[in-house]
Write a structure and sequence with these properties.
8% of the residues lie in helices and 24% in strands. It has 550 residues and is mostly beta strands. The strands form 14 sheets. Strands 1, 2, 3, 4, 5, 6, 7 and 8 form an eight-stranded antiparallel beta sheet that branches. Strands 33-35-34 form a three-stranded antiparallel beta sheet, with no helix packed on it. Strands 9-10 form a two-stranded antiparallel ribbon.
């Protein structure tokens, strides 16, 4: 048989009759297993202060209750119907708390009068067994019910098994998946299953796609890689598919996040501030100005900016920096000669330099270059910006002309090149380029004498080469051969075709005895005085030589 689970357990009541001593009427007398002692409440009914009475026993744990036996106070046969009428109409509750409203009704008496030794089966689970009765002013009660009652419970015996067991001897274990480890005390069927399990004995796991108590909840369907949720909790144990928030994966990603478990942040650069695709992170509507890529997480390549990075920077940002990838502005200003946030505006005509703050020189022939102020200078002014006079010994436009070497003190007027300090002798004129004829005679004589000396030395060289036999092989080939020698390396053929002319090379693999002769004789032809060589005829600055075989 099931155990007596109420013996000497904590008990309480409302109200208590003022017995002397009071211990003769307290609540614990109903669970001491002594039939001679009983709990006793105060009067209740229409003529009494109190209208309800209750008593409970705290079992100290959750039990699977089988039956409840109540032994009411007996005063003998003559008072039996009175006593039965006092107890009539009572209720029994089984609860997990001392509040009957949170428990369930196990037994309700009426309209027949109960026996003074009462037993009822009460299948259920709980920690408290609660006795309750009432006599209300407005209520109409069955015949035999006493209107003014005193409750006297001598013994309350609750039989049941500890939680998790069932059967006559409470030796069988409930299924581990029974809710609260409780099952029917007779056959062991679960009174309810733990989340994730189903069936009378809660031995079956929820079907795929369902979870929770009685498997009545559906999984979200958004678990990673199509997996099903946990049948107990409904959580996606391996995480969520892209675009869904853990743990249940039943809510889409919050604004600005995407991907599996919504673990990734959107780039924040989708067009018009739109949110990225919660699954892929892509900006389906396109990118904000200055960004590229499916995720719009790449800035424009250096040197480009704007929508779809389709615009080139001006190229005129200071320090060779690239412009801002969004709107093209230059971070640290412009190169010399440019204005505007984007540095795409040239200086106005007549200005140049940083912020176009400098004016072109008045000495420029035309408008200066807007970047560095350089220009083509007026006569007498030096490049590049025409702000300085021509350096000494120069004059003219951009000072590109040198003063005449015949100017005294090597100085001239920077505008027209005239020698302001006079000329060196024997020169005269504004530019000192004209020479006095009388003063020039010594220079002419010196030049002629120099030419004669040069020709004399050259003829001596030819004689020396002939003595060394350079022309021997040529003489053997032709007894009388005339050679026309010029002041160049090539021997030219004269107009006189009655003679034979040849070119002699300084080196030839087959004719190593030939040499180029370069003779110029400014005067009349004369005999060389060398054996086998005669000057035959002079033609201008050229000389005919005849070689005789040695």
């Amino acid at each position: 048989m099931p155990d007596d689970v109420s013996y000497r357990k904590r008990s309480s009541q409302f109200s208590t009759f003022p017995c002397i001593p009071l211990s003769n009427c307290v609540a614990s007398n109903a669970v001491d297993r002594d039939n001679r002692t009983c709990m006793r409440s105060d009067n209740i009914g229409p003529a009494s202060t109190y209208k309800t009475v209750w008593w409970y026993v705290d079992l100290g744990d959750v039990y699977s209750v089988y039956s409840i036996r109540i032994l009411f106070k007996s005063y003998g046969e003559q008072y039996e119907n009175r006593q039965r009428g006092r107890f009539a109409g009572f209720s029994l509750y089984l609860s997990y708390t001392a509040n009957k409203e949170r428990g369930f009704l196990c037994y309700k008496d009426g309209p027949q009068l109960p026996p003074l030794d009462f037993t009822t089966t009460c299948y259920g689970h709980g920690s408290y067994v609660i006795f309750y009765n009432e006599r209300l002013n407005e209520a109409v009660y069955p015949q035999g019910y006493e209107k003014l009652i005193i409750t006297e419970l001598c013994e309350v015996v609750v039989e049941g098994c500890k939680r998790g067991t069932y059967g006559k001897l409470c030796k069988n274990n409930c299924s581990e998946h029974c809710q609260g480890e409780t099952c029917d005390i007779i056959n062991g069927t679960c009174l309810g299953c733990m989340p994730g399990w189903t069936g009378q004995f809660c031995q079956k796991s929820c079907e795929r796609g369902s979870h929770g108590l009685d498997c009545k909840f559906r999984c979200s369907g958004h678990c990673l890689d199509g997996q099903t949720c946990n049948p107990v909790t409904g959580i996606c144990d391996e995480g969520c598919a892209p675009g869904w928030t853990p743990p249940m994966c039943n809510e889409s990603c919050s604004y600005g996040r995407y991907g599996p478990n919504c673990a990734s942040n959107c780039s924040g650069h989708c067009l018009n501030g739109n949110m990225c695709n919660r699954k892929t992170g892509r900006c389906d509507s396109g990118c904000s100005t200055g960004y590229l890529g499916d995720l719009c997480n790449k800035e424009c390549t250096s040197g480009w900016f704007g929508n779809e990075c389709s615009q080139l920077c001006s190229g005129h940002c200071a320090n060779e920096e690239f412009c801002n990838h969004i709107d093209g502005h230059c971070y640290n200003g412009c190169k010399n000669g440019y204005l505007g946030n984007m540095c795409n505006e040239s200086c106005a005509h007549g200005f140049y330099g940083a912020n176009c703050s400098k004016s072109c020189s008045q000495n420029c022939k035309e408008i200066c270059k807007h970047t560095d102020g350089s220009c083509l200078c007026k006569i007498g002014w030096a490049a590049p910006i025409c702000s300085t006079e021509c350096p000494q010994n120069t004059y003219g436009e951009n000072c590109t002309h040198s003063c005449s070497a015949n100017c005294a003190n090597d100085t001239c007027d920077r505008f027209n090149g005239s020698c302001t300090g006079g000329c060196k002798e024997p020169y005269y004129g504004d530019m000192c380029e004209e020479m006095d004829s009388k003063s020039a005679i010594p220079f002419i004589i010196g030049g002629v004498l120099g030419a004669i000396v040069f020709v004399t030395i050259l003829i001596a060289l030819v004689v020396y080469l002939l003595r060394k036999g350079i022309f021997r092989s040529l003489i053997e080939k032709r007894r009388h051969s005339q050679i026309y020698i010029t002041s160049t390396d090539t021997l030219k053929q004269p107009k006189d075709e009655s003679h034979t002319y040849q070119t002699l090379n300084t080196f030839n693999p087959e004719k190593q005895n030939y040499v180029n002769l370069d003779l110029q004789v400014p005067g009349e032809a004369a005999a060389c005085g060398n054996e086998g060589l005669r000057i035959i005829k002079k033609q201008g600055n050229y000389v005919n030589l005849e070689l005789d075989k040695v």
